[in-house]
Structure formats: structure tokens, C-alpha cells
Amino acid sequence: MMQSMYSHSYLFGGNAPFIEELYEQYLADPNAIDEQWRAYFDKLAQAPGASERDVPHLPIQESFIQLAKQPSAARGKSAVAEWESMQKQVGVLKLISAYRVLGARQANLDPLMRMDQHAAPELDPANHGLGDADMAVQFNVGSLVGPQRLPLSEILARLKQTYCGSIGFEYMHLTDSQEKHWLQHRFEADLSTPRFDAARKKRILKQITAAETLERYLHTKYVGQKRFSLEGGESAIVALDHLIQNAGQHGTQELIIGMAHRGRLNVLVNTLGKLPRDLFAEFEGKKTSDLASGDVKYHMGFSSDIPTPSGPMHVSLAFNPSHLEIVNPVVEGSVRARQEHRNDSERKQAVPVLIHGDSAFAGLGVNQGTFNLSQTRGYGTGGTIHLVINNQVGFTTSDTRDVRSTLYCTDVAKMVEAPIFHVNGDDPEAVCYVTQLALDYRMAFKKDVVIDMVCYRKLGHNEGDDPFLTQPMMYKRIAKHEGARALYANRLIADGVIGKDEADGLIKAYRDALDKGEHVEQTVLSNYKREHANDWSHFIGTHWAHPTDTSLPLADLQRLADKVTSVPEGFKLHPTVEKVINARRAMAEGKQDVDWGMAETLAYASLVTNGYSVRLSGEDSGRGTFAHRHSVLHDQNRERWDQGTYVPLRNMAEGQGNFLVIDSILNEEAVLAYEYGYACSAPNDLVIWEAQFGDFANGAQVAIDQFISSGETKWGRLCGLGLILPHGYDGQGPEHSSARLERWLQLCAEHNIQVIMPSEAGQMFHLLRRQILRPYRKPLIIFLSKRLLRYKDSMSPIESLTTGGFRPVIGDSTVADPKKVKRVLLCAGQVYYDLFNARRDRGLDKDIAIVRIEQLYPFPTEQVAAELARYSTAREVLWVQEEPRNQGAWYQIRHRLEGLLIGKQTLAFAGRPSSASPAVGYMSKHVAQLKAFIDDAMTLTK
């Protein structure tokens, strides 16, 4: 046989690509291929000079060339039969490969049997030169798991059972051979056939019965009320139950679930154990809440501790707005925070589970962003288990030509080489099978994995929607469909696993329990104390003005400065960075005022030294977008990142808190939502997201509107997330000037967020420390001037860090006699320095006072009133801002200022004229506008 393998033509021509693929398997794992092929390739590898070749495939390619040069006579007429035999053998191996790649296209996935099965001629044996006469012939199966030789008919049967039953696998897009072989062995070894015992099958029936019965009960009891039914996709409850009951075997202690509203009420009751009576109270409008606004029932989250064979499993369902998939990065951030809190370096104790809709999964860009985060250093969570409830209709569209441009709704997951398991939702055992496989894969390879559960939606988008209006033919089939519970019950009855009376009894028992507002049995642990639970209690009910001393003694500041300006011996700094480091040493010695970068660095250094962790992310946060931070130092003589970088803030003290700075992916929406989720699960960490330019935050407006600004009033979720938004009008055009201050102030109510526009470097030091040291956790929005980062007048003496704290209002200390002041200018941010310089240049120091309001919300009413009271004889108060009149703070704080006027004082405005654009793009026009409103501010009324 070995001689013939060298001498016959089946090794080249049309078979060459296949044999090259076989040779690639040999290079990855010689034991994965047939013994005869392995011997042949071994011989090629031993050929003279083979070990010195740089190209791995060169030996096999050269063998093709040499064989092609041999005259046909040399191959001989006697080789014809063997050549035909080997052609058949190669055809069998190609057929096996085709099923692995394309078998999912012929799988039985659609419960309604409406789905068009996409043509795959490669799955036809005839396409590989195989016919009926070959069905009884024994062939070598190559790497197909099982006996090494089988009749073609049995090979075909095994392939169809493995790849074309209720499950369709997509995994050949994975480039890691180990992962592919691991998956192949799992489902080829057992032919993708679940083998559950009777007890497990009864549990599956019980779960799917509960899912269906709850929906039907609600449908008849609360007619016409929205609940976004799970009917048609009830096997999702079975999948979650299987996951919860088995994840503990891998050391998992927490599962954090994110999902939109489809099926959410079912998950709350049947998975997390929410009492039916509490759900009924929400339907009946009897639910009382301490929340300022609350939210609809199908957006609410829930947490519980569920008993499993491996111990209690804490399961949390994240709160979620109607914006479908936006919760996904929030969940990822929450999981990462929990893993860090547990020092879970293996990322197995807390695991994210995301439940998607088919159209949303394919259509919403936040999924691409979240997948892109999954394997990065600062955002990875060790892999996510994705469950797509694929009802094949999206909102109203069932024609895939209108829903997506890909074959499957899950194709976006291939960007991170996630394996995808398509499964028929009417086969709950198959759903459990792929759930277990997904769990094991995630734990083995720390990567995302996707379960595409193909099902249907029995009702409309909501219960008041008539789906027959747009999908008449589909819903005629659905009306006749028995449902997954009935199909599975009949299957178990036929197999003798359960009697019909017992199956019907499950329905009655569940309905009887619902009538009492209870569960059939206790499904959650009560009064269980988790070791790693976060305690938010001491942040509840506190006030923003809680007295907090954020100063540090000079000796402590100098000790911190010495640490943050130290670099390892032999570490070559860039000349610009070396200049920054030397300047920071001078600042600590009092030879120079402290700039913004140093003030921020000292704040971080003080926190991590005292055990607090700091997490800072953004698209250029290590260096700082404006090259002011330099928290990551780069050795100019070393290429590798692990050797060529040094982070001083990670080397402050023994047992210090963690400092992590991340240059994030270019996706504001996913990253900001992720950081929100992280901060919601890390009450004692300083978590900050920095926009490259302030206006770029509008790419994450969904996260801002639906989580950051309203998460507390809707769901009671406290969050201390900080945002740094570069803001300031310097003639750099619309997107590089404004952080849309007016939008943020419009969102302010009920002390929900903090909006700060600091004008001095020392303020930055104090407000960052205040955010953690004060027992108060609300989102902190910092409007940071780009120009002031290097503006000397805005820098602070180091002594300003040794006393006091953050000042919400900074009065005018230069005014000699407040009684002689004729006009008071109120402002925020960098415009103060334009006003200060203009007043000095025009000799108006006695006539005009300038007061800075550094905290725009919560508005510091008492402090502003105290400053205005100093100038009770002034007749004019002007609010001055850089932003156009219809933007900025003016319309949002005008009513507050009017309420503080004294006597006959009047309130006026000075700023740029109203504009549709945040800023002008022409420097000449920018300068003209600046001059105009400064003139307005400086021109006293006669």
C-alpha cells in the first residue's frame, strides 16, 4: 500500500486540495488521521531536506509535482482499479468534511417546517463520485469519531444523525484545531443524541409545562395586557434550568443573565423564583414601590439563590429598558466586576448569560461591539453563553431578505470564532444537550458560544397585536401546532417514561399553585447570606453635600509623587514624557504649580495606596487623548508590551488597590454600557470612562438615557460611574468643542447625577477623591477643558491639595469692596479666564465680580446665594457661557438663578447666538463670537 501511495495519480489533480487539508490535520495532530495516511506523511517528512523547509505544506506539494511528471506508463494499467478505489475513499473523506461544514443547512431545525433548507450539493454522495453501489462498501472514516472502517451507508447515517437532526453545528470556521477537535469528539462520539435518564426527562417536562402553563394562565386572567409571551419558545426555560443546575460542576457560583422583554416574566417566575402573587399584583396595579418612577414589569430585574447539586447558585437577571440588546455590555461589565471582587483569575465563578432575539442579535451594532470586547484584556469575562430565542419573525418580518444580509441571524458571532449550535426548540432534550455542550466549551476555552434555538412566536409582538395582519400563512401553521410541551409529553408517554395522567397532573398542579399565588415547590433559598455580596446600604439616603475632607498632608503627597515619577533602572523614556515626569517632580517640591495631569494622578495614587481600586477606560486613556496623563510609560528601546511598558500607579505600595487603565475599542455605546455595569457591581471602586472628545459620548446616548441618568429612579440601582468629557470652545469645530452640556442638564432631576465643570487643577484632585471617600454614589459627569490642561493660570499650588476639599462654588477673592460692584458675572469652566483677563485689561476690577459655579447639578443653591449676597448693591447679574444661547447651561439653570436675585437685580445672558451646530468651524468666526460676548459681559449699563 505504501508503494502505491507514492506511485499513483490519485494524489494529485482534483484531489490535491483535499489531501493538503488532510496533511494540515496531520501537522496539527498526527493521531487524528488514518494510520496509512499517517505513515505516508511520515515518509514525506523524512525526505531529504524536509526538516529545513520553511513552508509546512511544501513536502506534500512537491510530491504532487513529482507524481505529475511521471509518465502514465510508469503508473501502469494495473493501477487503474486501485486508483478508482482511492478516488472513492477520498470522496468519502470529502463527504465527511462537507457534513462538518454544511450539515447545519439540512438539519431539522424549524418546528413549523417552513424554513427553506439551503441547497448544499456537497452533502450529496454523488457529488463526490459515490453511488448506490458503494453503500455496502467499507471505507476508512478518517478522523470521524467511531470505528475506523464502516460501510458507506452507515457513515452516511451517522453523519445525518450527528449533523442533520434536531441540532445543526457550525464550528469549522474556528481556526484553533484543538477547539475543533474537542467539539468534533463531543458530538460525533454520541451522534448528537442526548441520553438522559427518566428523572431528568421528567424534570424537563415539568419545566416546559411550567413555562407553557404560566403563559396560558396569564393570557386568560389578564386579557389584553402586555407581557411579551414566551409561547413558542418555552424550551428557553428548560435551557436555563439545565444551565443553573449544572454550572456549579465547573466551580461557578453566580450566573448573571441579560435579556430583553420577550419571555422575561416567565424567567422571573419559573427560573428565578419570583412569587406569582407578586407578579399578579403588578398586573393588577397593586404593586407599591419606594422608587421615584419605577418601571414596567417586563423590564424589572431580580436576584435569587437557587439550590443545585453543587451548592447554591446565585442568579441575577439584570434590569433592562426596551432598547433590546443594550443590556448585554452592562451584564458583561457587572460580571467582570464580580470576578475582580472575587480575585477570580480563571473567570469561572461568575459567568454571563445573554438571551437575544433573532432580529436584534443580527441587527443591533451593540452586539458587534460586545463581541469585540470579549477577548480584550480590559473587558474579557472568560466567555459568554448566548441563547438566541429565534422566533423567525423579528418584529413583523418573516422574510429574511428584509431582516438581515446573512444566512443565519447568528453569523455576527463568527467574528470572534464562536461556535454556533442551532437547535430545534420543539426538542427540549436537544436544547439541554447543546446547553451542556455550550457550558463545557465556555469553561474549557474561555470563549463565547452561541445557542440558536429556532422556535416561533405564538402571539403577536405583544398581546394586543394581531400577527395575522402581516404573517397570515405562518400563523395558520402556528394555530395548528401542538406546542413543545404536548409533543414532548406524548413522546415520553410513548416511551413509557410517564403516564398520561401524570403528565396532565403537572398542568393541574401548576395551575392550582398559581391560583394561590405560589409555586408548586420551593425553588429558591431564603435568608441565604452570600460571601461576596455587595453592600450598598450605607450609600442609601445620603446627601451630595456630605462633609468630606479630601485633602492630604504635604508629606503624603510628596511620597506619592515620588512613587508616580519613579521608573525602573534602564527604562528609556521618550523625551516629551521625561520632561513631564521631571515637571511633576518639581510640582511635588513646590517649584511649579500642579497641573491637571498631576492632580489627577495624585488622586488615583492616594486611592490605590489606601486599598481602593481605580478603573479608567477610553480610546486613548493610557496616554490621555491630549497627551496629559501618561499613566502608562513606554520604553523607547523595547518592542514587546509586556516588557516595554511600566505603570507607576500599579507599583505604589504593598497590598494596594488595583489600577487598570484601558485603551478601549472604538465603540462608545458598548464600552460605556460595560463600564456602567461594572460600576453598578463595584461600589468601592472608582470607575471612569473618558470620551476622546465630549461630543463623542452621543454615540452612547442609549446608555446615558436609559441607564446612567435613570437607572436609580426606575430600578433603584445606585452607580458611582464617572465620565470625563472634554469640553471647551477653542475654534476646533463642532465635534471637538462641545460635550452637549445642555443634554446632561436636561436629564438632571431628583439628584440623579452630578454635573461638574471645574476651572482649577486642584478641583480635579478633590472631586475624584470625593467621589470615593464620600458615602454617596451617583454618576459623576466631568466637563473637562482641553485648553486648561496646559494653561498656567488654571494650575494649583500643591498647598491647595493639603486643605479643604472640592468647592462647588468659587467666589471672587480679588474684589476689594463688594459694595462697589456693579455687575456680577456667573460662569463655569474655562470661560472664566477669558472674563478675568478682559476685566483686568479694561480696568474693571472694582466694578465687576466673577463667580464660578463649578457644580452645575445638584445645584449648590446655598453657596451661590451666599456669593450673590456679598454683592447686594449690584444691579446686574449675567450668566456668561461659551456655548450658543440655545445650548449650554443657560436654559437649564436660569430659573435657579432668578430665584436667587436680590431686590431689583436683573438677570441677563452673554454668550454665542443660538445655533443648530454646537460650534463654528472657522477660526475667524470663533474669535469674532468670543470677542462679541466678552464685550457684552464687560459693557456696564449706564
Automatic annotation (TrEMBL):
Which top EC class is named for this enzyme in its record? oxidoreductase
Q: Tell me which SUPFAM superfamilies the record gives.
A: Thiamin diphosphate-binding fold (THDP-binding)
Write down the chemical reaction(s) this protein catalyses: N(6)-[(R)-lipoyl]-L-lysyl-[protein] + 2-oxoglutarate + H(+) = N(6)-[(R)-S(8)-succinyldihydrolipoyl]-L-lysyl-[protein] + CO2
Q: Transketolase-like pyrimidine-binding domain location, by residue?
A: 594-791
What is the name of this protein?
2-oxoglutarate dehydrogenase E1 component
Q: What does this protein do?
A: E1 component of the 2-oxoglutarate dehydrogenase (OGDH) complex which catalyzes the decarboxylation of 2-oxoglutarate, the first step in the conversion of 2-oxoglutarate to succinyl-CoA and CO(2).
In the UniProt record, does the keyword Nucleus occur?
no
Listed GO MF terms? oxoglutarate dehydrogenase (succinyl-transferring) activity; thiamine pyrophosphate binding
Upper taxonomic lineage = Bacteria, Pseudomonadati, Pseudomonadota, Betaproteobacteria, Neisseriales
How it assembles, according to the record, is: Homodimer. Part of the 2-oxoglutarate dehydrogenase (OGDH) complex composed of E1 (2-oxoglutarate dehydrogenase), E2 (dihydrolipoamide succinyltransferase) and E3 (dihydrolipoamide dehydrogenase); the complex contains multiple copies of the three enzymatic components (E1, E2 and E3).
The family database entries (InterPro entries) matched by this protein are listed as: 2-oxogl_dehyd_N, 2oxoglutarate_DH_E1, DH_E1, KGD_C_sf, ODO-1/KGD_C, THDP-binding, Transketolase-like_Pyr-bd
Q: What is its EC number?
A: 1.2.4.2
Annotated GO CC locations: cytosol; oxoglutarate dehydrogenase complex
GO biological process, alphabetically ordered: glycolytic process; tricarboxylic acid cycle
Cofactor(s) for this UniProt protein: thiamine diphosphate
- Key words of the record: Glycolysis, Oxidoreductase, Thiamine pyrophosphate
Q: Record keywords: Oxidoreductase included?
A: yes
Family under the similarity heading: Belongs to the alpha-ketoglutarate dehydrogenase family.
